[in-house]
């Protein structure tokens, strides 16, 4: 098994485009009240650079690349979600479209991560955090949003649980320390 430091040395340089495009997004800080195709592109660039990262690691239709294909699909839907959120102030329906795109992305990530190892204590602890977050948000939610945000919080919880359950104990301890 590779150590976290070895993985970082191997993968880190390949993530430079992601970090650069993220910096560009925050440096430009485009006006949210005047959305344009350019602002949508700038907002989507970090996620699109992660798509390139996944593609550069190899991709095929074989079972060996199922995980990568699902992650790539999740990233594509995440980029679409970002694009829809650019126009949420013009028409509220774009917010719903964005949520749907992100929900599809999260389902793809959850399926990618799988359910082995199960690690129920991690799931239970994270569920407590998710329930607390929803309890804080709930009073400000009205109508259909109270249900949609509840479903979205559940998807975020599932995705985080499944992602963290895959971490090795050593790696998990390192993340907590950092």
UniProtKB/TrEMBL annotation:
Transmembrane domains' residue ranges: 37-56, 68-87, 93-111, 118-137, 143-161
Gene Ontology CC annotation, any one: membrane
Keyword tags: Membrane, Transmembrane, Transmembrane helix
Bilayer topology annotation: Multi-pass membrane protein
EC numbers: 3.3.2.2
Name of a matching Pfam family: YhhN
Name of the top EC class for this enzyme: hydrolase
Recorded catalytic activity of this chain's protein: a 1-O-(1Z-alkenyl)-sn-glycero-3-phosphoethanolamine + H2O = a 2,3-saturated aldehyde + sn-glycero-3-phosphoethanolamine; a 1-O-(1Z-alkenyl)-sn-glycero-3-phosphocholine + H2O = a 2,3-saturated aldehyde + sn-glycerol 3-phosphocholine
Localisation per UniProt entry: Membrane
Gene Ontology MF terms: alkenylglycerophosphocholine hydrolase activity
Assigned protein family: Belongs to the TMEM86 family.
PANTHER family to which the protein is assigned, alphabetical: GH04784P
Protein name per the record: lysoplasmalogenase
Organism ancestry: Eukaryota, Metazoa, Chordata, Cephalochordata, Leptocardii
């Amino acid at each position: 098994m590779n150590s976290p430091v070895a993985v970082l040395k191997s993968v880190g340089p390949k993530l430079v485009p992601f970090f650069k495009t993220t910096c560009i997004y925050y440096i430009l800080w485009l006006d949210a009240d005047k959305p344009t195709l350019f602002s949508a592109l700038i907002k989507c660039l970090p996620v699109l650079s992660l798509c390139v990262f996944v593609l550069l690691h190899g991709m095929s239709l074989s079972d060996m690349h199922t995980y990568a294909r699902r992650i790539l699909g999740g990233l594509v839907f995440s980029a679409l979600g970002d694009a829809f959120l650019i126009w949420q102030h013009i028409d509220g329906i774009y917010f719903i479209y964005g949520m749907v795109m992100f929900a599809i992305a999260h389902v793809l990530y959850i399926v990618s991560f799988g359910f082995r190892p199960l690690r129920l204590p991690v799931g239970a602890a994270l569920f407590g955090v998710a329930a607390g977050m929803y309890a804080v948000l709930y009073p400000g939610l009205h109508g259909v949003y109270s249900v949609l945000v509840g479903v979205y919080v559940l998807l975020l919880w599932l995705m985080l649980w499944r992602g963290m359950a895959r971490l090795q104990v050593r790696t998990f301890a390192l993340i907590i320390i950092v």
